[in-house]
Write a structure and sequence with these properties.
Shape: elongated
Number of strands: 2
Distance between the termini: 51 Å
Number of helices: 13
Helix content: over 70%
Radius of gyration: 34 Å
CATH architecture of the largest domain: Up-down Bundle
Number of domains: 3
Length: 414
């Protein structure tokens, strides 16, 4: 990453130095009336060649190093993301960084060169650039808002599709296909409107930027002409100042795709919200389950029956009090050991989209074929599995959709 930063900074500064060398080139034509014009032009041309080589090396460092760094970071973040998700309770680099650094170098370097060459003209040209920055800022805020609305709409549409496909039998039993399609269309229409607004804002911003840019050209050459006549400015210095500030202005536009990426990321991140850790579900709750007894938890909907099981499984830890087995706090046991000792079959069990054999094998690391078949026999699932065309190798489908509710429960018990 350090090499990428150096390359990006060097590449940006090389873009700015082009303005200086072009100014020197113009002065070589205009100020030399003798036969050494060709010699002076050759010197400047040679400097441009050196600059081209430097820019090429810097650009290669920028792109290659940032690409390698981005791929490494992306792979690492994906692994860490999955690890983090799997560690949670049941209750959250890209190569564009190099471009941003290069554009920042161009922006700052352009201003420095312009003020060194002629601070008065640079100061006059600065006012339109301030307007340009303000326009970009306003457009960025508006696009962020529209991107958020668009992502919300697409997310809602994706939920409609996921729920419809995942519960297709329920949807079909209530003849709700048309309603699902209408809900999906409404979500897409909202996303379309947000996309149109975002496009209009982007177009308006680009048009305004070019308007300000060309007005700045006119101001630069008009006031630059006055400086040549009234001050000690030369045509080369005016050109250097104009090109330097032009590069600084264009760097803002070149960085806009990066800003768009930040906008999308900001909109996505804003949807990530915490759960309600202060909300108490089981307040002052006490329960004693005798050893070796079958116990049934009976209560109304939302009374906390499932939450008690979740606490025993350590999907959650209690905020106060504790859960004790033979006087030992559940927190003192390893989570893996606890869950190996507990079997949980929900009313609507979830199976993985693989074979019956592999689903049963998930219950024990390194389970043998004999152990799998014995577990299926105990769960009273052998008869219906043998009646299937592919037997134990039958694919159960997404969430076990190919099996009936009772069959799914027996596979889950196994």
């Amino acid at each position: 990453m350090l090499s990428g930063k150096i390359g990006a900074t060097g590449n940006g500064l090389c873009q700015v130095l082009v303005a200086v060398f072009f100014g020197d080139l113009v002065d070589s034509f205009g100020l030399n009336r003798t036969s050494n014009v060709l010699q002076e032009v050759s010197k400047v041309s040679l400097r441009l060649v050196y600059l081209a080589i430097s820019s090429g090396v810097a650009a290669m460092l920028q792109v290659s190093c940032w690409t390698v760094a981005a791929e490494r970071q992306a792979a690492r973040l994906r692994v860490l993301y999955l690890i983090s998700i799997l560690r949670q309770d049941v209750t959250f680099f890209d190569k564009e960084v190099g471009k941003i650094i290069r554009c920042t170098s161009m922006f700052i370097g352009g201003f420095i060169i312009a003020f060194i060459k002629g601070w008065l003209l640079a100061l006059v040209m600065l006012s339109p650039i301030v307007s340009l920055v303000l326009v970009v800022g306003v457009i960025f805020i508006f696009m962020s808002r529209e991107a958020l609305q668009s992502q919300k709409a697409y997310s809602k549409g994706a939920n409609v599709v996921e729920q419809t496909i995942g519960s297709i039998r329920t949807v079909a039993s209530f003849t709700g296909e048309k309603q699902a399609i209408e809900d999906y269309k409404k979500s897409l229409q909202k996303a379309y409107r947000s996309g149109v607004h975002e496009g209009l804002a982007s177009g308006l911003g680009l048009g305004s930027a070019y308007f300000i840019l060309f007005c700045n050209y006119a101001l630069a050459f008009w006031y630059g002409g006055k400086m040549i006549l009234e001050k000690d400015y030369t045509g080369g210095s005016v050109l250097s100042i104009t090109l330097a500030l032009l590069n600084a202005s264009l760097s803002i536009g070149e960085a806009s795709p990066c800003l768009a990426a930040f906008t999308a990321g900001q909109a996505a991140a804003s949807k990530i919200y915490p759960s309600r850790p202060t909300e108490r579900v089981l307040n002052e709750f006490s329960l004693l389950i005798p050893s070796g007894k079958s116990t049934a938890l009976v209560g109304g909907s939302g009374s906390g029956k499932s939450k008690i099981i979740s606490l025993i499984e350590r999907f959650y830890d209690p905020q106060s009090g504790g859960i004790f087995i033979d006087g030992c706090n559940l927190k003192d046991f390893q989570v893996k050991w606890i869950r190996q000792k507990i079997a949980l079959v929900s009313q609507e069990p979830t199976l993985f989209s693989t074979s019956i054999r592999e689903n049963v094998a998930y219950g024990k690391d390194g389970a043998t074929k004999e152990e799998i078949e014995a577990a299926i026999e105990i769960a009273n699932a052998t008869k219906f599995i043998n009646s299937l065309p592919e037997g134990y190798d039958t694919m159960v489908g997404e969430r076990g959709v190919q099996l009936s509710g009772g069959q799914k429960q027996r596979v889950a018990i196994a």
